[in-house]
Amino acid sequence: MPLVSMTEMLIKARKGRYAVGAFNILDYNSIKAVVETADELQSPVIVQTSEKTVLFWGFKPIITWINELSSRTAVPVAIHLDHCKDLSIIKNCIDAGWSSVMIDASSKPLEENIALSQEVVKMAKPFGISVEAELGEIGGVEDDISIDEENAHLAGVKQAKIFLEKVKVDCFAPAIGTAHGIYKGEPKIAFDRLKEISQLSDTPLALHGGTGLSEDIFKKCISLGCSKINISTQLKYAFIDGFLNYYQSKPTEYNPLTVLKAQYISLKQAVAENILLFGSNMKAK
Ligand SMILES: [Zn+2]
Predict the structure, then answer these.
(1) Where are the beta strands (DSSP E) in the chain?
(2) How large is the greatest C-alpha to C-alpha distance in the chain, in angstroms?
(3) Is the pTM of this model over 0.90?
(4) Ligand 1 is a single-atom ion; what residues have CB below 5 A from it?
(5) How far is the CA of 208 from the centre of ligand 1 (A)?
(6) Which structural domains are found in the chain, ordered by start?
(7) pLDDT at residue 149 in the model
(8) What is the pLDDT of residue 142?
């Protein structure tokens, strides 16, 4: 089916107390692994692109791949631009056919974050494109942006209330203590903060930094209103390891297609594991 925005799938997820996985892709093989796994498990899915990946390939190739793969399945597929601070890239994604975008103005003061996020809502809404925005600063490394522990800060409840009243986002990403990349030690999730923010509105919440969280943490976050869970780092590992493990097991074979196939299988396993964990399987209808 044609690409859809995240709006409806996330409203349904929040009501149904499950979460839709947002998987960061790297190329055609990884999009194929994400969409085909979602199809097999009858799950809605969000194919997520980092700004870096978009600039690496260009807008047109990515949208062509995703349209082609989405047309082969009946499960809802959204293509979402992850953390973006640059309005011209957001505009280009909207023009190219992205069905969802994220404006990340979380490093700016509240008023400026609100103004920039409102501007993106104005750009996207006329085309039925969903918008995600962030408040507070999520720690760790995403693309080339590194937020160390001292600078990462949680979203404030009062600020979140003002933000949600002023910006009509389809998905809200409050920083609640998760981090991008690999966790060093136990992640400290501010469940109380998440609960308070969740009670402010029905807006589906996004959980960033999903890689490495335990099943219990996922379940608790989902029960508290997280309807979109981002998985990026785990797929980076599956992408490289899938390729490398096969090559190391048959170092003299030199058949590129069998290596790509091994990489595809490794990615599929990672995606399937998360879909089942988030409970979005059989929720495509
Ligand atoms: Zn993120």
Answers:
(1) 20-24, 45-49, 77-84, 100-103, 130-135, 139-142, 145-147, 171-174, 179-180, 205-207, 226-231
(2) 61
(3) yes
(4) 208
(5) 4
(6) 7-278 (3.20.20.70)
(7) 63
(8) 74
